[in-house]
């Protein structure tokens, strides 16, 4: 056990960047910009796209199979989840089976579906801890 602890002490994981499927890079980028207030970082139709939501980035690769996008998702940690939820609710993008709720594992979260079918779950540590 000591050897394992020593090895992990030398490494610090900083962030993860999801790479999601996109059936149309331009349309996908527009969804995140218009509905979530993202900033378009890169958009190359048929190849690759990137948006920034504050300090995080979501990447998108061009994909022709909708089933792949519909089987893909990611989790995004946020602060101000209640405000974000109201914004997403007003935009009509909250997943009908994933409204804002508190979880048994200590988060408050909800999910949206983008235009490609990717499930994005926004979560915040619960104040109940």
UniProtKB/TrEMBL annotation:
Protein's recorded name: Bleomycin resistance protein
Organism (species): Methyloversatilis universalis (strain ATCC BAA-1314 / DSM 25237 / JCM 13912 / CCUG 52030 / FAM5)
Domain VOC residue range list: 12-125
Domain of life (superkingdom): Bacteria
UniProt record similarity statement: Belongs to the bleomycin resistance protein family.
Record's keyword terms, sorted: Antibiotic resistance
GO BP terms: response to antibiotic
Pfam family, one: Glyoxalase
């Amino acid at each position: 056990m000591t050897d394992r602890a020593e090895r992990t002490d030398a490494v610090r994981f900083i962030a993860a960047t999801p790479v999601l499927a996109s059936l149309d890079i331009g349309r996908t980028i527009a969804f995140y910009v218009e509905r979530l207030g993202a900033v378009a970082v890169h958009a190359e139709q048929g190849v690759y796209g990137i948006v920034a939501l504050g300090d995080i980035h979501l990447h998108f690769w061009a994909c022709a199979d909708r089933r792949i996008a519909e089987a893909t998702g990611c989790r995004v940690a946020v602060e101000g989840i209640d405000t974000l939820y109201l914004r997403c609710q007003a935009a009509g993008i909250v997943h009908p089976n994933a409204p804002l709720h508190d979880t048994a594992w200590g988060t408050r979260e909800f999910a949206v579906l983008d235009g490609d079918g990717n499930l994005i779950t926004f979560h915040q540590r619960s104040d109940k801890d």
